[in-house]
Specification:
- With 591 residues, the protein is of the alpha/beta class.
- 40% of the residues lie in helices and 14% in strands.
- The strands form five sheets. A five-stranded mixed beta sheet has the order 9-8-12-10-11. A four-stranded parallel beta sheet has the order 6-5-4-7, sandwiched between helices.
- A hairpin with a 7-residue loop joins β14 and β15.
- Bound molecules: flavin mononucleotide, iron/sulfur cluster (3 copies) and FE2/S2 (inorganic) cluster.
């Protein structure tokens, strides 16, 4: 059980199963995240022959029938299945189209048991490295695999490790970046909650490769379950001598320490993170020197993301060639994405690099939850870009995304339909980065505030000719004049929305219209007298008493009182209320 499942009520289902199975020869256990957030709580039935059946959205009252029909009578209940070996279900595409390396243990093993990890070749990679590989060979294997950092930058991991390896010094460190600050991203949390030992093993391999004696995991305090499972995993690894002095009888000694972060987005930036681990205020500093030369307490340090580390044991065990058969020429392997927003099957997926946005949204995600048309996909969180539906054939790899002005980022994917206002989306992300700026650089601190002021004016109907050009000019200056990635990339959502949805900006500025009818200052609600049945529903629901009218008589909205909350629009069963914007609005308001 991971956070998602627990939030959906998995504990109650587990308790019901425990009760129902107490006299049966069936083993009951917990697992981590299967990635199907949209179907939680999930119950998997695994047979002795290894066949898997996954029941979706299980409630405690369904447990009795699952036990009776599936476990006792061996008849899977097909209508409740999200997935079943040899059975076609509407959700089969969600699983069948994925390629699991990083998430291979997630939802499969018990994340709280080291034995469960050992059963799936856990700690075999570190054993192999210690026994038959030199540190240089480990670095060579990772370099050859083509693995690139999954934290957003995409820097080649093997190259990064070779820098730290070559840096002189007896004391070196490994740092795992588990800060995961992008709004809507939950890849790292899920990996840590579901397979913490994979990340520990990846860190050990990095430690062995660069010659470090200790590793730090910087994890946000908002992830209590991940922290709890990491602590348990570290204890268990120490008991079995995978961590500590002279690991597996070798000369290699390595320890792992957890540091909890307080949730500042900028602390995910590597130099700010290092300062935060040292107990100082988390503020980025100029590079060089890079952490590989002078990192934690001035010592050579390699810092990698959770997902990057989770790839490493698999590569060492199966070889670089097995890994780089997946992906594209310059983006090897697989990538985990957190599918969120307007999507039928929202959750966590792992796919080969190079898969198109369309395949992710339609085949794996099952299309838009609203049934509407795809308008845009935001990748890379607040540092990323909005990709329009017309570019949905773009492959998800570092180069292709960069070419269209977006970035892969850490793996957040926000799906939006036609009802979303792109100026409002840009404002949302810029507001986030503006609030998270550490304030060190003037361009980032003041520039993002000024850009936000302009966007606020535009969405309030006070946009002026020249605002778009001013935004573009400021964006370029902020990117150029900022010290760290936060300021350098903060304008990206604004730039990509201007690039692909310029007409929407124009409509806000020139026509005082919000084409998506979202910006409150630019819309009005009206009741169509010929359609209104006078059912009184809207007037009862309106929070400010703006609607008047007699029973069975057409109602009227007082535009002065209306705060455009949209409640009347959503409660009217007779679709008698319209939303207007721009010229249409002016005409309607003058009636
Ligand atoms: C503002 C900002 C926030 C960042 N947040 C994260 C984060 O939450 N997790 C992460 O792994 N990397 C984050 N990064 C990237 C890190 O600085 C660093 O590049 C990364 O941890 C390196 O690991 P990798 O090579 O395995 O990707 C952030 C960068 C910036 C500029
Ligand atoms: S760019 Fe922004 S977040 Fe980064 S150091 Fe400068 S002020 Fe701080
Ligand atoms: S809910 Fe609809 S039909 Fe009923 S009074 Fe309001 S506008 Fe008229
Ligand atoms: S939009 Fe909200 S405030 Fe305006 S009339 Fe409808 S319910 Fe009342
Ligand atoms: S089901 Fe695991 S994150 Fe939602």
């Amino acid at each position: 059980m991971a956070s998602c499942g627990i939030a959906a009520g998995a504990q109650k289902v587990y308790d019901a199963l425990q009760q129902a199975l107490k006299d049966l020869p069936v083993e009951l256990g917990i697992s981590g995240c299967m990635g199907m957030c949209y179907n939680e709580p999930l119950v998997e039935v695994r047979t002795a022959e290894g066949r898997r059946f996954i029941y979706a959205k299980v409630e405690p009252k369904q447990v009795e029938r699952i036990v009776q029909e599936h476990l006792i009578e061996n008849r899977p209940i097909e209508e409740w299945l999200a997935y079943g070996d040899g059975i076609e279900t509407p959700d089969s595409a969600f699983i069948d189209k994925q390629q699991r390396i990083i998430l291979k243990n997630c939802g499969v093993i018990n994340p709280e048991s080291i034995d469960s990890y050992l059963e799936v070749d856990g700690y075999k990679a570190i054993e192999k490295a210690i026994k038959i590989m030199t540190p240089e060979q480990v670095i060579e294997e990772i370099t050859h695999s083509g693995l690139r950092g999954r934290g957003g930058g995409g820097f080649p991991t093997g190259v990064k490790w070779s820098f730290a390896f070559k840096s002189p010094g007896r004391v070196k460190y490994v740092v795992c970046n588990a800060d995961e600050g992008d709004p809507g991203a939950f890849m790292d949390r899920s990996i840590l909650e579901s397979s913490p030992h994979s990340v520990l093993e990846g860190m050990m391999l990095a430690g062995y490769a660069i010659g470090a004696q200790a590793g730090y995991i910087y994890v946000r305090a908002e992830y209590p379950l991940a922290i709890k499972r990491l602590k348990k995993a570290i204890e268990q690894a120490k008991e079995k001598n995978f961590l500590g002095e002279n690991i597996l009888g070798s000369n290699f000694s390595f320890d792992i320490i957890i540091r909890e972060g307080a949730g500042a987005f900028v602390c995910g930036e590597e130099t700010a993170l290092i300062r935060s681990v040292e107990g100082k205020r988390g503020m980025p500093r100029i590079r060089p020197p890079f952490p590989a030369q002078s990192g934690l307490w001035g010592k050579p340090t390699t810092i990698n993301n959770v997902e990057t580390f989770a790839n490493v044991p698999w590569i060492i065990l199966h070889g670089a060639e097995a890994f780089n058969q997946f992906g594209t020429e310059n983006s090897k392997g697989t990538k985990v994405f957190a599918l969120a927003g307007n999507i039928v099957r929202g959750g966590l997926i792992e796919v080969p690099m190079g898969i198109t946005i369309k395949e992710i949204v339609h085949d794996i995600g099952g299309g838009l939850a609203s049934g509407g048309k795809l308008k845009a996909v935001q990748t890379g969180g607040p540092s990323g870009g909005c990709i329009p539906a017309s570019l949905a054939d773009t492959p998800m790899d570092y180069e292709s995304l960069k070419k269209i002005g977006a970035i892969m980022g850490s793996g957040g994917m926000l799906i939006m339909d036609e009802s979303v206002c792109m100026v409002d989306v840009a404002k949302f992300f810029l507001k986030f980065t503006q609030e998270e700026s550490c304030g060190k650089c003037t361009f980032c601190r003041v520039g993002t505030r000024q850009m936000l002021n302009i966007l606020e004016r535009i969405t309030n109907g006070e946009g002026k000719e020249g605002d778009i050009e001013l935004l573009e000019d400021m964006a370029q200056k902020i990117s150029a004049g900022s010290l760290c990635g936060l300021g350098q990339t903060a304008p990206n959502p604004v730039l990509t929305t201007i690039k692909y949805f310029r007409d929407e900006y124009q409509a806000h500025i020139v026509d005082k219209a919000c084409p998506a009818k979202k910006c409150k200052a630019l819309i009005s609600y009206h009741i169509m007298p010929e359609a209104c049945k006078g059912c009184l529903r809207c007037s009862r629901e309106c929070p400010v008493g703006a609607i008047t009218g007699e029973k069975k008589q057409p109602h009227v909205i007082d535009q002065q009182k209306c705060v455009r909350c949209g409640l009347c629009f959503s409660v009217c069963k007779f679709k008698s209320i319209t939303v207007t914007t721009g010229k249409e609005r002016g005409e309607a308001n003058n009636v």
